[in-house]
Structure formats: C-alpha cells, structure tokens
Amino acid sequence: MQITERTSGAVTVLDLNGKLLLGEATQHLHDKINSLLQQGRTRLLLNLSDLASIDSGGLGELVRTLTTTQSHGGTLKVSSLPKRIQDLLVMTRLLTVFDTFESESAALESFG
Q1: pTM
Q2: Which of 54, 55, 70, 107 could form a disulfide bond with 20, CB atoms 3.0-4.6 angstroms apart?
Q3: Contact by Cβ (8 Å): 54, 85
Q4: Which residues pair with residue 101 across a beta bridge?
C-alpha cells in the first residue's frame, strides 16, 4: 500500500492507495500517523478513494488510528469510501465510529 501525504490548509490529507492488509501495510499507516502526531499535525483526513481492499487487520488499524489521533487531541476524518469498503464498515458497525464524508472537499469543509 502507498500513502501520499499532502496538506490543505491546516489539514493533513493522506491518500491511501492499494490494499490495507495486516502486516507491512498496517505498520506503514501506524508509523505515518505517529510521525504526523509527533510533529503536532493533529487534523487528519484519510482519503480512501483508491483503497482497493481492506482486511480485519486493516479495519483494526483504522480504529487504532482514530483512537491514537483522539488521544493526542486530534481529529481524524475519512472521505471517499469505495462502496465495497463502505459496505464492510456498515456490516461491522464501524461506520458509526468514524466521521465519514462522500467527498474530500466536504470533509475538508467540516474541519471549519
């Protein structure tokens, strides 16, 4: 999985591309989030439009990303969920846990 980092104002946008599977990909996301939080970058947006698939380890890492961000006083939002991944979040009832948006622009606006 590849993670592309960019900023939009005070928000750090992470574009996830590929497969978020337990192992190297989840560790890569974990390390990236921790690095950003250590830099004081606490307004984070995960753009999942190019995420091909996710497994249970990937779902767990998304939850850990949310709790880690919140414990640092930050905000994590998710945008552009592919239908397959959105359906999975609905089935696991995790959709209610995350602040999700249909588009990146809507998510960015929500940061205020």
Answers
A1: 0.95
A2: 54
A3: yes
A4: 79
